[in-house]
Amino acid sequence: MNTMKKTPASILVMGCMAMAILVSGCPELLYVTVPNVTGSTQATAEAEILAAGLTIGAVTEQYSDTVPEGRVISQNPAGGSSVVLGSPVSLRISIGPEPSGQEEYDAGFADGFAEDDEYWQGYDDSYDTVNGGTIYYSGGEIPYIEELTYEAGYWDGVWQAYNDGYFVAYDYAFTIGFSEGYDVGYSILWPVFFAGDTHPEYLDGGFSDGYNDGFTEGSVFGAYDYENGIPYDWLGAMMDYRSPIDLCVDDYCTGEYGPVTLYEYGTDPNDLVKKSTPRTPRASMHAPFAIRKSDSAKADTPAISYRALIQSVKNELSIKPAKSPRSDRTISLTTTWLQRVEDYRDQLNK
User: How many angstroms separate the Cα of 165 from the Cα of each of 44, 121, 162?
Assistant: First the structure.
């Protein structure tokens, strides 16, 4: 029995091509014309090459300002050439115009800013910074690259996400403190409270820093509304404050005339004099925007993002203390911290 294995025709032809001569057992080489696929889509080009009895060679990509993305810039061998059946045809495919540095930066920024883990890490670092104790802010450890590249954009986006989370925790605490300060101030006994109260200022952007800043400002608004016969409305008063409106009742004032120093977005609280770096412009609560940059902006940066609350944060805020640490007076508010934060978020969306 003949056990000799048969060699596939394509392999036999390629072997004969390699020897470049005709020998016994080699068929006469067949020549075909290479189709012209320049300008075709990659899929169409490959289909035409295979239909002509040729194979797909190396496929490379190249930026092109003239050839649309996904189409053939050039081929080798050229269209119209006569080559041996089964020969490979290499293709160079366009991936469109080369991105500018700004486009690369913007793409990186979008990816970095989308990092939810960084956002909630910032939130947790603020939430865990209490009563002037250990400062957990780590925004200063995020790399900064002074150029228009994807990597530079990515880290700036991460920085923005982290600082959004850190500031939002402070802002929610401010909201909670404002509501309870307003409640305490909205009373005939407000002069007695003010006479015995001292505003603690931590300057660290932590949760208790935000609570106390909000409590002090809210107590003045509460006393003002009480004295002027304005119906009890802590949320309306806080949105007036943020508009911004500042006011005084007797010698007690909000804003620049009061004792509160608001945490400034992007400021590293480890710098107790609140000196911002050249890449971190200062922004107050009334202008919550941030652009990490040097002398010129690299990108238009979004306003602070109040992202959907995750369950762990909801759990932390689902409490309703009977009293504030700043007063012995029982709080009349019937809503939880979470409900007040959600009411505030609803106002932001209007």
Answer: 49, 7, 5
- What pTM was computed for the model? 0.70
CA distances from 199 to 7, 119, 221, 254, 325 (A): 92, 29, 15, 12, 12
Closest CA to 327 of 255, 171, 232, 222: 222
Rounded to whole angstroms, the Cα distance separating 201 from 210 reads: 9
C-alpha 194/C-alpha 332 separation (Å) is: 18
Question: Distance (Å, rounded) from C-alpha 262 to C-alpha 277?
Answer: 18
pLDDT of 11 over the 60 cut: no
Could you give the count of Cα atoms lying within 13 Å of 209 in the half-sphere of its Cβ?
Answer: 27
1-15, 111-125, 245-259, 283-297, range with the lowest pLDDT:
283-297
Give the bridge partners for 41, in sequence order. 71
- pLDDT tens readout for residues 176-223: 999 999 999 999 999 999 999 999 999 999 999 999 999 999 999 999
Average pLDDT, the chain: 86
Q: Decide: residue 292, CB within 10 A, 0-12 exposed, 13-18 middle, 19+ buried.
A: buried
Tokens standing for residue 322 = 């009977």
Q: Rounded distance, CA 22 to CA 20, Å?
A: 7
Residue 16, φ and ψ in degrees, nearest 5 = -65, -35
Torsion region of 187: left, alpha or beta (phi above 0 gives left; psi -120 to 50 gives alpha)? beta
Assess contact for 159 and 257: CB atoms under 8 A.
Answer: no
Six token digits for residue 224? 């003002």
- Where along the chain do the CATH 3.30.10.20 domains lie? 10-94
Q: Is 64 within 8 Å of 29 (Cβ atoms)? A: no
CATH of domain 10-94: 3.30.10.20
